[in-house]
DNA sequence: TAGCCTTTGAAGTCT
DNA sequence: AGACTTCAAAGGCTA
């Protein structure tokens, strides 16, 4: 749909990736993971949902949009998959040496999520 | 005030 | 190889 590789998009993506604070003891620029299809859908739709839904908070909005996502026809989902793929490729072009493992385990959490029943 | 919580998906680590 | 974990977004809530 939109212009595939607009220079402004590239600048914005780079700028956004630099907004996140640097990790202490790490190089100054924190390069974020590129968003997946649902994350793009989530960001686009969050501002479009009704204000009364926004008033419910991000958690409720996210859960609601998760339901919306599952209801989306694959023809509509496809554009988000294409967009995420595009952004992944652009991200790789702009950060050739970056890998998702650069960020892996960097967040300090109080409790780690466990999908299988925690012992 | 940093992290949780909520969602899907990509990609990492572990068994 | 398959199971499990982390992080992308956002913002009210929590410790």
| Proportion of residues in helical segments | 40-55%
Arithmetic mean of pLDDT: 76
Return the string of H and E elements: HHHHH
Radius of gyration from the alpha-carbon trace, in angstroms: 17 Å
Choose one word for the global shape. Answer: globular
Structural class: mainly alpha
GO biological process, one term: canonical Wnt signaling pathway
GO molecular function, one term: RNA polymerase II cis-regulatory region sequence-specific DNA binding
Protein name: Lymphoid enhancer-binding factor 1
Domain HMG box: 31-99
Describe the structure.
The protein has helices at residues 7-19, 37-46, 51-54, 58-71, 74-94. It is mostly helical. The protein has a domain at 37-94. It is globular, with a radius of gyration of 17 Å. Residues 1-27 and 114-119 have low confidence and may be disordered. The chain binds a DNA duplex (15 and 15 nucleotides) through helix 2, helix 4 and helix 5.
Short description:
The chain is 52% helix and 0% strand.
Keywords:
disordered N terminus; 119 residues; mainly alpha; single chain; DNA-binding; disordered C terminus
Question: What layout of secondary structure does this protein have?
Answer:
Layout: H1 7-19, H2 37-46, H3 51-54, H4 58-71, H5 74-94
Helix pairs in contact: 2-4, 2-5
The chain binds a DNA duplex (15 and 15 nucleotides) through helix 2, helix 4 and helix 5.
